Amino acid sequence: MIESWRWFGPVDKISLAEVAQTGAVGVVTALHDIPYGEVWSVDAITERQAMIGRAGLGLQWNVVESLPVHDDIKRGSGDLDRLFANYRQSLANLSTCGIGVVCYNFMPVLDWTRTTLDAPVRGGGTALRFDAVRMAAFELHMLGRQEAEADYPAEVVAQAGAWIAASDAVAREALLASIMAGLPGAFDRYSVAALRETLARYAGIGHDDLRSNYARFLAEVVPTAAELGIRLCVHPDDPPRDILGLPRIVSDADDIDFILQSEANVANGLTLCSGSLGAHPDNDVVAIAERFADRIHFAHLRNVAKEPDGSFQEADHLDGDTDMVALLRVLLAEEARRRDEGREDADVPFRPDHGHEIGPDLGRGAHPGYPLVGRLRGLAELRGVVAGLQAA
Fold this sequence. Notes:
Mean pLDDT: 95
Strand order of the largest sheet: 1-2-3-4-7-8-9-12
CATH architecture of the largest domain: Alpha-Beta Barrel
Radius of gyration: 20 Å
Helix content: 40-55%
Structural class: alpha/beta
Largest sheet: 8 strands, parallel, barrel
Number of domains: 2
CATH class of the largest domain: Alpha Beta
CATH topology of the largest domain: TIM Barrel
Low-confidence stretches: none
Strand content: 15-25%
Number of helices: 14
Number of strands: 12
Order of helices and strands: EHEHEHHEEEHHHHHEHEHHEEEHEH
């Protein structure tokens, strides 16, 4: 397995030298300054590659995360021919530069969503948390989406009312900031009013509509990816449930099966995110990995601890609800199978996904979920499991 590290480019508080100190060799990054839907030029790609390689640290940009899908594609509106052509050109330019794994997602409006960025953990560290009560309070009372009442248990709705009544403007603003934090890259976060306007653009779009729009996207780009030798890998929804009235269609095994069957080509693959999939109460992450192992091109490895009301908190990498040892055993077995077939993409790049802010991470101001020491702890634990399984 190829140890990799998410790096947000020049704005990242963590330096490339520190990335190298973790022992990772792959850098997972993106050109966040390029607007969605525009072409990633060869010059822009090679500039980022040069930045990564300039320090002589033995690092290489091995995975794109993410080459974003414009919201017009998700809505099925606008100048789609131009957007598809630009996406294909970006893939071609990445291939020209020798980058062959491209992670993306098909989540409308928001990427990962949390309600708390600093939930306390043992010893004074902090973790990311999704709290169903706070999310319901945001949807019902801050966003004014009364139909959201049907999306939550009655006791959560009642507790949401109590939370909003006890909150002040500072607490409500912190909640909005936490929900917006999952938007990567250099673009404006939404105010409540702007978020309402953005959500209104999805009015009338249900699960079947979004699936249809996704299938068209795959039909437009997967053949090009296959010709170029690019491995596309969709990231699951986070959290894996409808949110803000928006449909989510990459949340469970049935969704993944639909996606991979829509374009039955190895170029159309999966980013196995154990944390995202693990937040769904019905998902068996190890079974999902076994079922779709031959289409896993990239892995995000982290863990969550779920709660009965739909809340979850990010746990230590080897703790939480997913058996990480069993999951790594599946990935190593798939790598061995690929090597037996002589496949060039036998080794799966992975990164320790998210991490608790602990020790010197606290107060450093890293991207939420992406501290240095917390992820280094996760990488060291995952590295130990891999070494143990390989030695067994």
